[in-house]
Amino acid sequence: MDNESLLVKVRQMEHQFITHWINALSNESPGDANKEELFNRGQAYFRYITELHIPFDNHPVVLKAVDWARTVEKDEGTVKWIISFSHLWRNSLLEVGGDILSLGLFKQISARIDHFEIMMCHACWEKTVLWMKEKDCEFDRLHEDRINLIGKMASSMAHEIRNPLTSIIGFLKLVRLGIHQQTFEKVDSYLDIIEHECDNILKQVTGFLSFSKRPMIEEGLVYVSARQILDTNISLLSPRLIDENVDLLLAVPEQVKLRVQKSAIQQVLSNLLNNGIDALSALKSNKKMCISCSEDSGYIYIRVSNNGPSIPAEMAQRLFTPFVTNKEHGTGLGLAICKQIMAKNNGEISFTSDDSETAFLLTFPKKRKVTESGVQVVS
């Protein structure tokens, strides 16, 4: 019997071949797909391998399958599935049609199975190569972003530390001059300022490290006068306030106390005050800054305002985001660190800005105690 006649008999057994293939596939990959879907796939593939009069590359099953292989999103096991698919079809041909298949016809059908397998694997390989190239580009972008981030952090660190170091160097010169001139009464005050600036450097380093995965040991919470914190900051900023001709109004009662990380909150206020002075540099005269403190039943508020230019609308939405700044030599980390510090102190920082005033508001919750009767008391 010639191959054409044998091929007719094979086609007549289509259902038996497909059923055998489905059972084998179900045993190898339980739950792969429902039987109806598998039968439709098997029927399409069976027609491909038995319609020998249609060239390999022109058969609609091949074109559709290759297109699928190129567009599939998750193809980690696709190649393995393709090889298993081919093996199970050859096995079904031998098991079901072993008595009617001639060697020549089996070779022809097997060649179509091989061609399908090669085409599918090649399509998957192309997809994998493209995916790898895209990942390489993505890794390159991430690496470049990381290098840029390190550069910004280094620049920011240098900028934040340079100012207190400059102050330290200046006061060390005054100390040396005071020693030579026997004016020891001022040396002690100079040393206090030098010590404070060293603490300021430590705070800056702590702030930077707070963005890393290995933060420094957290500063403990203590009760401290809000006026005391502000007096310390203002004493250090006095030379700059005088040089910039800034009129500072301080309205902070002595009795208001905060339970906070003292050095960290000093850093927040120092940043807000320096930012305010920077903003006022745009004015030629009538430079005003105000620091006020108020409280209600649940919170204590410290408000730092200035009459400088308003914050641009495009910056306002991202003001507390790292590296967002409109200063020529700014780093964009100051307010981001302030927000993080306030969060660690269970507080909040917010702002308002218009043409007449820009104001930052620090909100600190009062400590609450529960009495024996279950009543909450603010302390």
From TrEMBL:
EC number: 2.7.13.3
Key word S-adenosyl-L-methionine present: no
Transmembrane regions listed in the UniProt entry: none
The reaction(s) this protein catalyses: ATP + protein L-histidine = ADP + protein N-phospho-L-histidine
Domain of life: Bacteria
Molecular function, one GO term: kinase activity
Keywords of this entry: ATP-binding, Kinase, Nucleotide-binding, Phosphoprotein, Transferase, Two-component regulatory system
InterPro entries, per database record: HATPase_C_sf (IPR036890), HATPase_dom (IPR003594), His_kinase_dom (IPR005467), HisK_dim/P_dom (IPR003661), HisK_dim/P_sf (IPR036097), Sensor_HK_Regulatory (IPR050736), Sig_transdc_His_kin-like_C (IPR004358)
Domain Histidine kinase: 156-368
Enzyme class: transferase
Full protein name: histidine kinase
